[in-house]
Design brief:
Elements (H helix, E strand, L loop, with lengths): L2 E2 L3 E2 H9 L8 H31 L2 H14 L7 H7 L12 H16 L4
Antiparallel strand pairs: 1-2
Helix pairs in contact: 2-5, 3-5
């Protein structure tokens, strides 16, 4: 299953066109799919803005967790006892390699950790 812009599986779009009743595609479905594509394209920007505001109110512990959670989801091989206790050892592909968006998010969190004197 492939995704458009990393957000919506193509199969959701093709399902509408591969299963028309009597060879006719209801135009309402096309409109719904177009709206969904717009919503999924906007969500990452909204989430980033929400995260930036949340970081201001987060404790050092919360910031540490948020930063390392991003790495944990990407299979990072944790070395410290603290991280292993919380996230496990990890070590699965892509072994902590982050996307550009994830790298920016980690950098934002690290900035807040520096501002608050956490690191």
């Amino acid at each position: 299953m492939t995704c458009i812009n990393g957000s919506l599986p193509n199969s959701l779009i093709f399902a509408v066109f591969e299963y028309p009743k009597e060879g006719i595609v209801d135009s309402r479905w096309i409109i719904v799919i177009a709206l969904l594509l717009d919503v999924f394209a906007v969500i990452p920007g909204i989430l980033s803005a929400a995260h930036a505001q949340d970081y201001r109110a987060m404790s050092c512990e919360d910031l540490w967790y948020a930063r390392n959670e991003i790495y944990a989801e990407r299979g990072y091989c944790f070395k410290t006892q603290r991280a292993r206790a919380v996230f496990g050892r990890g070590c699965f592909p892509p072994y902590g390699d982050l996307s550009p968006t994830e790298m920016r998010e980690v950098a934002r969190i690290e900035q807040w950790e520096m501002r608050k004197g956490c690191r």
